[in-house]
């Protein structure tokens, strides 16, 4: 009879003091629907990564940082029993073969053994993994963890967000995806009297308000007023000094144009759909809040993610990137900087190489400009914008001087158009 009673005990999952207003939430605790199947599509079975948490300090004036869900699991309490909990979160995407995690990489990717460890080791300090276990199966920082389960003897709730393993993972980077909450119950002798029961939900991302997003990008990159002035060609491979990347917000608008049901600034897909495949270009109910992803790598990379469609860490040749870029829109904005600096350095190197190759034909290109949609871009501006989309931009032809070659998609024009519009 005790076992029958236990099977009837309600299992609840709550996102404490949910600061988001999405789906009717009013800033109070939000109960999460738990599904019986991992393929369920209940939109109420989502624990949201809040885009803006006003309980935290502002990152810039008027911009509050996002916040991971603060999850609490609970069930009925019967004296003398031990409640055993665990949580697993895996970032299964809409796109990868066989439902593999997003960054399982395209077939043909050549990764070293060390890089594979970075992607699969849940204890890795570099936090590249898409597979999260709370508690850790071994080496858990939770004093209540036994053989991969958190044991609570008095039947009180499991404050997941206060679990040391959860905290450590969150410090390494935000995470989300398909989640499985498990519970089993032991008697006072340690015998299982209620076998493992699994419940399913998702951790998904809420997009920032467009105006807030643009404010943060402009504050970070000195926009929107064009202020790329006084650049001159210098010898060596060191990039010229850059006052600001004023066009950053326009790049983000172009990179996310129409994605996921939003006009611009989609870190996540509001409608759950994809945008780079005609067969799946419509919304996918129940999958709202998936990361905004395009399989647009020119080689065996991870594709592009988020507001700036980031594909790699500037120092990483094989497109391995921290998961925080995917699930934290503020981090995604911040990581545009080292990448665009790398593009500038590549452009500077190319100019230096051209000077060495054609010494008699070389002229300093710094004062050159090109116009796209009534916007005038200086040489270094148009070069790094074009290179951000995989093009080269300017090249020197001996006898005929410097010429600007746009990307096949005329990327510079599209960036200019979204800059001229100058609205969220």
Structural notes for this entry:
The protein has 424 residues and is of the alpha+beta class. It folds into 2 domains: 166 residues, no CATH class; 212 residues, no CATH class. Helix content is 23%, strand content 20%. It is built from 10 helices and 19 strands. The strands form 6 sheets. Strands 3, 5, 6, 7, 8, 10 and 11 form a 7-stranded mixed sheet that branches. Strands 2-1-4-9 form a 4-stranded antiparallel sheet, with no helix packed on it. Helix 5 packs across helix 10 and helix 8 packs across helix 9. The radius of gyration is 25 Å and the shape is elongated. The N and C termini lie far apart (61 Å). The N terminus is likely disordered.
Write the layout of secondary structure elements.
Blueprint: H1 2-7, E1 12-15, E2 30-32, E3 46-49, E4 71-74, E5 82-90, H2 113-120, E6 131-134, E7 145-146, E8 149-152, E9 158-159, H3 164-172, E10 177-186, E11 192-205, H4 210-221, H5 248-255, E12 268-269, E13 290-291, E14 293-294, E15 304-305, H6 324-327, H7 329-334, H8 336-357, E16 369-372, E17 375-378, H9 379-388, E18 393-397, E19 401-405, H10 411-421
Parallel strand pairs: 3-11
Antiparallel strand pairs: 1-2, 1-4, 4-9, 5-6, 5-8, 5-10, 7-8, 10-11, 12-13, 14-15, 16-17, 18-19
Helix pairs in contact: 5-10, 8-9
């Amino acid at each position: 009879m005790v076992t029958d009673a236990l099977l009837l005990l309600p299992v609840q999952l709550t996102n404490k003091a949910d600061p988001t207003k999405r789906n009717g939430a009013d800033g109070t605790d939000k109960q999460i629907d738990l599904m019986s199947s991992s393929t369920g599509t209940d939109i109420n079975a989502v624990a949201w990564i809040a885009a803006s948490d006003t309980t935290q300090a502002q990152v810039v004036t008027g911009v509050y940082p996002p916040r991971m869900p603060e999850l609490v699991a609970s069930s009925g309490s019967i004296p003398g029993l031990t409640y055993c909990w665990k949580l697993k979160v895996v970032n299964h995407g809409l796109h990868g073969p066989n439902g593999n995690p997003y960054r399982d990489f395209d077939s043909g990717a050549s990764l070293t053994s060390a890089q594979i460890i970075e992607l699969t080791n849940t204890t890795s300090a570099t936090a590249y993994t898409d597979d999260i276990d709370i508690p850790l199966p071994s080496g858990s920082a939770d004093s209540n963890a036994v053989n991969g389960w958190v044991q609570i003897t008095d039947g009180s709730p499991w404050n997941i967000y206060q679990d040391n393993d959860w905290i450590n993972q969150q410090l390494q980077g935000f995470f989300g995806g398909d989640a499985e909450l498990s519970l089993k119950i032991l008697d006072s002798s340690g015998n299982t009297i209620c076998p493992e029961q699994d419940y399913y939900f998702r951790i998904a991302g809420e997009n920032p308000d467009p105006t807030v997003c643009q404010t943060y990008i402009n504050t970070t990159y000195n926009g929107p007023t064009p202020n790329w002035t006084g650049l001159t060609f210098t010898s060596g491979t060191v990039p010229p000094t850059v006052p600001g990347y004023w066009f950053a917000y326009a790049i983000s608008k172009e990179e996310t144009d129409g994605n996921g049901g939003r006009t611009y600034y989609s870190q996540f897909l509001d409608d759950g759909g994809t945008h780079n495949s005609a067969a799946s270009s419509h919304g996918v109910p129940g999958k709202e809040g998936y990361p905004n992803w395009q399989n647009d790598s020119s080689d065996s990379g991870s594709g592009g993610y988020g507001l700036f469609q980031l594909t790699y860490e500037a120092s990483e040749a094989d497109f391995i990137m921290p998961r925080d870029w995917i699930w934290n829109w503020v981090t995604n904005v911040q990581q545009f900087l080292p990448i665009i600096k790398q593009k500038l350095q590549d452009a500077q190197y190319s100019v230096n190489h051209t000077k060495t190759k054609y010494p008699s034909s070389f002229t300093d290109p710094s004062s050159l400009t090109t116009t796209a949609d009534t916007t005038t871009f200086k040489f270094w501006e148009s070069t790094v914008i074009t290179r951000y989309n995989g093009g080269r931009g300017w090249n020197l032809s001996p006898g005929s001087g410097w010429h600007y070659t746009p990307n096949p998609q005329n990327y510079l024009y599209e960036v200019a158009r979204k800059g001229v519009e100058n609205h969220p």
